[in-house]
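new request in #modeling-help
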Amino acid sequence: MSEVFTYDGGAVAPGETANIRYTVSETYLGDPVRVPVTIINGALEGPTVFLSAAAHGDELNGIEIVREVAHEWDHEELAGTLVCLPVLNVPAFIAQERYLPIYDRDLNRSFPGNDSGTSAKRIADRLFRNFIEPCDFGLDFHTSTRGRTNMLHVRGDTDDDDVGRIAHAFGSNVIISSEGPSGTLRREASEAGTPTITIELGEAHRFQRALIDQALEGVLSVMAEFEMRPNEPVKWPGWRVVINGSEEKTWLRADAGGLVEMHHDRGSLVEAGDRVCTITNPFKTDTTVVEAPFTGLLVGVLENPLVYPGNPLCHLVALDEVTLRAIRGDQTTKRS
Ligand SMILES: [Zn+2]
């Protein structure tokens, strides 16, 4: 038998689902700022997991992932509890901005929070104490910053065995290993004993169906790894690269201001010397070609085609020979 899930203000028994609007702050009018939370407590014993999205208010793909996970369960077939937080940062979501609108604070640098701190820290504290820390592990969904897009990849500290297990189970091709900046949900939760990964996919302000479906497969794969669903397999993505340390990944930056034409999509393999993109002036009389300094994978690329010198163009990640052969084999198979 599964256990009762309790939070400050309520409880959800095994075999029950609760849709809650949980107060984390107040507006200028004194009205409650409430975060939607769905808790699905399975009939069978198993781990308690949180899934969260929109810690940055304009990153929408994760919202749809978390909502879909929250509403397709038969309690009799769920071993454990799902704590679904589709919109963590409600004030930023309403404003359709990345940060909390007041003083531009980053909720995802405010964890684990503080109940007598800034408004961001108080919101973080209420979320963390009630819905993050009580969980056995967690998945936090993000997209690229506005104006750029990412291929689906996982971020987490694979040196931590518990985090590494979740990161591998998600079944993405690319894992970027780091503990993450201080104050992020994934780092603070992991340090507090709730190992957590971040999943990055696509761009802000969009629902991107193909990426959402790919991430849903990843969620089910993690649930399979922890035996939350009877008799389901863990996904193997065909090839996988775990990136450690900054020497293997680089942001290519513009050396000229201008208008950018990208020649490859996110997720493409580019060979050393390939043209990645071209920057032109308004008259198209001056052209700067940006070449790949090494063979690698375009994990992130520009969407907004305007740059100043110094602006990032793409996130290129180097690959070892074994991975390169696997990707080339994969692409040949897909073509035929
Ligand atoms: Zn984000």
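bot summary: The longest strand covers residues 17-26.
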